[in-house]
Write a structure and sequence with these properties.
It contains 13 helices and eleven strands. By secondary structure, the protein is of the alpha/beta class. It folds into two domains: about 160 residues, Bordetella uptake gene, domain 1 (D-Maltodextrin-Binding Protein, domain 2); about 100 residues, 3-Layer(aba) Sandwich (D-Maltodextrin-Binding Protein, domain 2). The strands form two sheets. Strands 2-1-3-10-4-11 form a six-stranded mixed sheet, sandwiched between helices. It has a five-stranded mixed sheet with strand order 7-6-8-5-9. The protein is globular and about 70 Å long.
């Protein structure tokens, strides 16, 4: 009897170990989770006015959406507070992947220059779509043609040089301030905010402001017409739209800051949904049709997947915080 009892104990023990171990996952548990996404149109929020550069760049993503995502992407503009109103609406939306944010470098800027109702961890990067370098543009008959000549003129004519940008705290405000800070003249010139880049451009052509900081597409027509010229490009290398214009780096100034543009989702979005969005946007952004539209708009595609773009975004947040203090825009 003792032997039978001992054998029973051993058999029960083996059964518990091999058959009922909590560490042994079932086939159902280890299988990938399937989600029914998307089963309705996806809304993409843009925190700037309809018809502006950011809105037009976001619209580049819509034509192939039904083919590659399975549902259309509908763009909604919610302008205000340097893009913060649009970002707030996404941060407070349901984390299901149906409300996305198309944002520029204005997203990390707003975290440190404004009082906002969101934090950097409220978003996860889905896909980088483009990376655009700003330029410093002046009237064609200005008495300077490059960075050195401009600096010399500013020093000889104190208080006479001015520069415009589309609003305090805007991406171009920070990009422009960085250029002029690297040139060592930020505290020797006047700053003139306007409602948009076009207003600044008109002010330069009218002789009311000395220069305007903007993205190349805003000035190509005037440059080709001989009405404006570009002092330099704030990028590591020359850009295809202005192959004859040197970068500030070539001219000896460490102004290489560019504006990334891409798609974000609420950080609480399920991983399975993020994976679907990630793969779909890769197909859209790397398509030939997207490249053609982007080149026409001055937004050539520069793609990075969700993991890469999210890492880039978080590093950019840290960099922007330090930069804003360095160039004197925040304490």
């Amino acid at each position: 009897m003792k032997l039978k009892k001992l054998l029973s104990i051993v058999l029960v023990t083996l059964f518990l170990i091999t058959g009922c171990s909590p560490s042994a996952p079932s086939t159902e548990e280890s299988a990938p989770k399937e989600v029914d996404f998307p089963n309705k149109p996806v809304e993409m929020i843009v925190g700037f006015s309809a018809g502006g550069g950011t809105h037009l760049a976001a619209e580049l993503l819509t034509p192939e959406a039904s083919e590659f995502l399975g549902q259309p992407i509908q763009i909604t503009c919610k302008p205000g507070a340097g893009g913060a109103i649009g970002a707030t609406s996404v941060a407070s939306s349901k984390a299901d992947g149906y409300t996305l944010l198309y944002a520029t470098m204005s997203l990390p800027i707003s975290l440190y220059m404004d009082t906002v109702d969101f934090g950097k961890d409220d978003f996860v990067g889905i896909a980088l779509a483009s990376d655009v370098a700003p330029v410093l543009a002046v009237k064609a008959d200005a008495p300077y043609n490059n960075a050195d000549e401009l600096i010399e003129w500013i020093r000889k004519n104190p208080g006479e040089f001015s520069w415009s940008h589309p609003g305090v705290g805007s991406t171009l405000h920070v990009l422009g301030a960085n250029i002029l800070y690297r040139m060592g003249v930020i505290n020797e010139i006047k700053e003139v905010p306007f409602a948009g880049t076009n207003e600044g451009l008109s002010a330069v052509l009218g002789g009311h402001v000395s220069s305007v900081v903007g993205f190349p597409a805003s000035f190509l027509e005037q440059v080709k017409a001989g009405e404006m010229k570009i002092i330099g490009v704030s990028s590591p290398e020359r850009i295809s739209d202005l192959p004859d214009v040197p970068t500030f780096l070539e001219q000896g100034y460490e102004a290489t800051l560019t504006s990334t543009r891409g798609v974000f989702a609420h950080s609480g979005t399920p991983k399975e949904v993020i994976k679907i969005l990630d793969e779909s946007f890769e197909k859209i952004i790397t398509s030939e049709d997207y490249a053609q539209r982007g080149d026409t708009l001055g937004e050539p595609p520069v793609y990075a997947n969700s993991e890469e773009f999210d890492k880039m975004y978080r590093e950019q947040c840290e960099m922007i915080e330090e930069l804003l203090k360095e160039i004197g825009l925040v304490e």
